[in-house]
Design a protein that fits this description.
heterodimer; A: 11 strands; B: mainly beta; four-stranded antiparallel β-sheet; globular
């Protein structure tokens, strides 16, 4: 069974802190790993990772994939209250043509 | 601006009612998906459709059915709503292509069954 596991499930930090969110996976036919941010409405796309060791970066957010150890991390530096959201990790399964999601990490940034 | 539109943001239904959740996309996407989202469980796939009139069961199809008569519209049907179907329902779509794996999501329908 294809499985994606995120940790922690919930995290509360102070504004300005740096956070690391984890995503591990066990799937039959990996094609890519995606990160989404979900505030009150629709999840919005952050990153897609296909190759190991290549960091993707967007402002204060960055992510990297390790295909040998089957995990990815999402880093957020100098956090702001606007970073409060649920962060979703998903793996695209080749052949099945679908995304399998983890449980999500609920991140709360306190001022 | 391309979008996926879910007809209702909030819905309250009674146990035993037949419930229709509608999803429309304006991007000419081939694939469409219905997920439910519950705290601690993440997004779980209910049904998906590769193209018009095609449907595939996801991981939790029991108690649900779907309809895709037109490419832009994918409907989720709860044949007889039960309280354990109280959840957030998310619709998504994607176009097929070698380098495109991401979804475009709708804003979600929060369904409460009483």
């Amino acid at each position: 069974e294809d499985k994606v596991v995120q940790s922690p499930l919930s995290l509360v930090v102070h504004e300005g802190d740096t956070v690391t969110l984890n995503c591990s996976y066990e799937v039959t036919n990996f094609r890519s790993l995606l990160w989404y941010k979900q505030e009150k409405k629709a999840p919005t796309f952050l990153f897609m990772l296909t190759s190991s060791g290549i960091e993707k970066k967007s402002g204060r957010l960055s992510s990297i994939l390790d295909k040998k150890e089957l995990f990815s991390i999402l880093n957020i530096t100098a956090t702001q209250t606007g970073d409060s959201a649920i962060y979703l990790c998903a793996v695209f399964i080749q052949g099945a043509q679908k995304l399998v999601f983890g449980q999500g990490t609920r991140l709360t940034i306190n001022p | 601006d391309v979008k996926v539109t879910q007809s209702s943001r909030y819905l309250v239904k009674r146990t035993g009612e037949k419930v229709f959740l509608e999803c429309v996309q304006d991007m000419d996407h081939e694939n469409m998906f219905w997920y439910r989202q519950d705290p601690g469980l993440g997004l779980r796939l209910i049904y998906f459709s590769y193209d018009v009139k095609m449907k595939e069961k996801g991981d939790i199809p029991e108690g649900y059915s779907v309809s895709r008569e037109k490419k832009e519209r994918f409907s989720l049907i709860l044949e007889s709503a039960s309280t354990n179907q109280t959840s957030m329902y998310l619709c998504a779509s994607r176009t097929i292509g070698y380098t495109n794996y991401g979804y475009t999501f709708g804003s979600g329908t929060r369904l409460t069954v009483v």
